């Protein structure tokens, strides 16, 4: 037996060496002899440090850092420093090696990168999100060294590729966090290939059924698609050859996640998603001829096929903020299908595939201002306020990861790039903080508009300021960019702190009058007594005269210490700090239908889970545990930011009772359709209707019904009956909280 184990270890050792040689082959054109020595040393250190560790799959842990280093080298085209840091990225966090050891062996740069990648130790506090703190720590390094973020993306990509060995609840948490933060970050850095793969892997674990269905439909329609593409591209190829162009023509099928997004946003089935693929024409042309050549090719394509004038995107003249350059048009094929055609040069294609990050020169920029400089400037502004709450930081940073952009002009004709939906207030802060803070209005194309006015591409904007102007809370509703929101919040906090200081002085005087000591225990008593969440909030209310301090006499004073009679506590534990003492959210599973350690739990109203639905529990601040569906509109947000407050949950097998379910029916308005629907509900065994409402517009109806069912399978039967009814085109579950605005729900949940 011992001999067999030794043979296995020897085999593993050879496989590890082969994996490392494969990494060296990928980096062979991009390293000096000294750098090769450093990479070998990093490998040796990592192997030794991780020698007794294994992954959940059972394989030696060292495979993970090697795989991450390979992604950095092969898929991001990063240099030796990133490869060294990737090999060592988990050593400080998981082994005996310290940051000082790293600096001594590999220098200060590698130390800084490893420090940025090392997680903060996890300590439970319902007011602090460890995920948000770690994300902020990583982002703080962007302005020093972009490699930290790129290695973290490579690390996350490999974790997602090997996620099948994890428990289902862990898979869901990691996928939600990836979809919420890391996929948009990859997009913002122009790493489209990685972004698409991350999104597909997230969907695979967050909605396995949708992933399987789309995947199988893509496979079954593959042959038909290929025939269509051959016919469509043939005349274009011939014409380009005749014109003497050297080119490559590819057909790219949309990612599964983007097809799913399109189905959800447009409310259409797979068969009605018209742009399942795009044709990409990549020209081998010198940089100075790129623009005219792209437009000439556009002219050739539109000679054969009629373009849609609303679907022309010229990112050749004005590249996107993440450096993406391409000319996109959508044309009508002879078969009556719209087809997207992307035209670009080889250089543009490289940037689109690998991201500008891959071409970021760490030593010095040869062409003056790098295309990332402006974005990094925005990040610096955002991270300038180190005291900012980590959760706010994540929210604001997410706002900065915008997908679509508008191009607006200053009165002097300078171009500014802003996210779609930006207002005149965002524009003012984009120009300068002081202009933003004193902005009272603007002129758009010479016409006076308010601060809340939404800008569109091509607008010329002139900001009007006044030295008497001060920001107010209302401004946070107008601003959509992270920069503007952060500056407004900082200004408002300054004002709040000033008012709080006044309140603190008033309370101090009152305490002296009543011989009460000014200590934190007494402040905590008053917070509970006056029902406020923080000391600062208490001081502000005192300053504004909203707290009756005459009630201080009614509170028992024992030698300067305030004592409040203990209230009779309800039997069930509801508060997060008490719940946390009773459970281990990593190991415990809540069984719905059984008592769970005397903790209060209930179903979330946003998604109305039914027995049979995949579910998880979320620990609220003061309302016990809320049970959510895995595909709840808020699931990604809850797990993406606070997975340490999520707990695995499952249904008790024999739990039988009525549950409320909500369905949306869409179809063609017809006489008697309402009657048909109510008949189905009436004849369906054990289904009772709670409410029904219908809206009809231009021959299309949308009905919303609420019914009581036993479980998901009971509901599926009802859905199947509806789908077989003539006139009904689509049936789906609907939720109270819209997917577009889950933050409103989350904030409410934390402070309820």
UniProtKB/TrEMBL annotation:
<dbReference type="GO" id="GO:0015969">
    <property type="term" value="P:guanosine tetraphosphate metabolic process"/>
</dbReference>
<dbReference type="InterPro" id="IPR007685">
    <property type="entry name" value="RelA_SpoT"/>
</dbReference>
<comment type="pathway">
    <text>Purine metabolism.</text>
</comment>
<dbReference type="Pfam" id="PF13328">
    <property type="entry name" value="HD_4"/>
</dbReference>
<comment type="similarity">
    <text>Belongs to the relA/spoT family.</text>
</comment>
<dbReference type="InterPro" id="IPR004095">
    <property type="entry name" value="TGS"/>
</dbReference>
<dbReference type="GO" id="GO:0016787">
    <property type="term" value="F:hydrolase activity"/>
</dbReference>
<protein>
    <submittedName>
        <fullName>Bifunctional (P)ppGpp synthetase/guanosine-3',5'-bis(Diphosphate) 3'-pyrophosphohydrolase</fullName>
    </submittedName>
</protein>
<feature type="domain" description="HD">
    <location>
        <begin position="61"/>
        <end position="160"/>
    </location>
</feature>
<feature type="domain" description="TGS">
    <location>
        <begin position="404"/>
        <end position="465"/>
    </location>
</feature>
<dbReference type="InterPro" id="IPR002912">
    <property type="entry name" value="ACT_dom"/>
</dbReference>
<dbReference type="InterPro" id="IPR033655">
    <property type="entry name" value="TGS_RelA/SpoT"/>
</dbReference>
<dbReference type="InterPro" id="IPR045865">
    <property type="entry name" value="ACT-like_dom_sf"/>
</dbReference>
<dbReference type="Pfam" id="PF19296">
    <property type="entry name" value="RelA_AH_RIS"/>
</dbReference>
<keyword id="KW-0378">Hydrolase</keyword>
<dbReference type="GO" id="GO:0005886">
    <property type="term" value="C:plasma membrane"/>
</dbReference>
<dbReference type="InterPro" id="IPR006674">
    <property type="entry name" value="HD_domain"/>
</dbReference>
<dbReference type="InterPro" id="IPR004811">
    <property type="entry name" value="RelA/Spo_fam"/>
</dbReference>
<dbReference type="InterPro" id="IPR012676">
    <property type="entry name" value="TGS-like"/>
</dbReference>
<dbReference type="InterPro" id="IPR012675">
    <property type="entry name" value="Beta-grasp_dom_sf"/>
</dbReference>
<dbReference type="Pfam" id="PF13291">
    <property type="entry name" value="ACT_4"/>
</dbReference>
<dbReference type="Pfam" id="PF04607">
    <property type="entry name" value="RelA_SpoT"/>
</dbReference>
<dbReference type="Pfam" id="PF02824">
    <property type="entry name" value="TGS"/>
</dbReference>
<dbReference type="InterPro" id="IPR043519">
    <property type="entry name" value="NT_sf"/>
</dbReference>
<dbReference type="InterPro" id="IPR045600">
    <property type="entry name" value="RelA/SpoT_AH_RIS"/>
</dbReference>
<comment type="function">
    <text>In eubacteria ppGpp (guanosine 3'-diphosphate 5'-diphosphate) is a mediator of the stringent response that coordinates a variety of cellular activities in response to changes in nutritional abundance.</text>
</comment>
<dbReference type="InterPro" id="IPR003607">
    <property type="entry name" value="HD/PDEase_dom"/>
</dbReference>
